[in-house]
Design a protein that fits this description.
Blueprint lengths: L11 E8 L9 E8 L4 E5 L6 H8 L7 E6 L8 H7 E4 L12 H11 L4 H14 L15 H14 L4 E5 L7 H12 L6 E5 L11 E6 L2 E6 L1 H6 L1 H6 L6 H8 L10 H18 L1
Parallel strand pairs: 3-7, 3-8, 5-6, 6-7
Antiparallel strand pairs: 1-2, 1-4, 8-9
Helix pairs in contact: 3-4, 3-5, 4-5, 5-6, 9-10
Amino acid sequence: MVPRILADPTSISCESLNYSYPGAPGPALSGVSFEAPPGEYVGVVGPNGSGKSTLLRLLNGLLVADSGMARIGGRDPKSEPFEVRRRVGMLFQNPENGLVAPFVEDDVAFGMENLGVPREEMQVRAREAIRAVGLSGYERREPHTLSGGEKQRVALAGLLALEPEILLLDEPTSMLDAAGRRDVMGRIGTLRGDRTILHVTHHLGELLDADRILVLNGGKLVADVSPERLVLDADLLAKNRLVLPPLSRLATGLGLAAARPRTPEELAREIQEIIRKRAAAR
């Protein structure tokens, strides 16, 4: 896929963003402000009801803010929703909701048909998108015969074919098993730098390589930190009911958490070495 980078220096910008659902006892979002430059990978975490999904829907123009400002490449989702949606692709947690055609290639082409993309161009872009998510050869497969991870990759291919500049990911792996999550995250990882990505998830392990992580709680942005700082801040984790991945919890128990940041692979090797040394000392 051809990288598409916004001309505006800021891909996503929010200033004092507020939103309340009708009849709700309190605001879903309250005074949220942040910016994300082009190509940045931003994670969004927080307990249930913290406003994570609401934030994505405001950015995509599916909801309209009560007050404050949101801009996508300088455009207002409130007054220019269709222009914003041409720039933004949104991936939801249930891939079944996005599959509408009898064959994979038709499903990937569906959005382009609605936009009036010429047929020859549509075929090329669909083929490239299917290849980009690792599903070459699946073009004539029926979506209902695919695994959960494969269905989510088809949904992702449909977004990539539209060539969005920004990807909004709303818990895209929450309904997948471990293998499916790993598969989908691997494909999303290949898009780093080419597109601005805002990724909502409950799995902190999916965000260890993010550029930064926003922590929402009670509709407020309570932290904007690096993954390393979040993982090492026990108080911040506890206050926002965030749970470390098992490997990180094991490392903490072995006294490794205070040292330099590590990849999961490095942690695994250090843990194995500690276990080996302790076994040899017995």
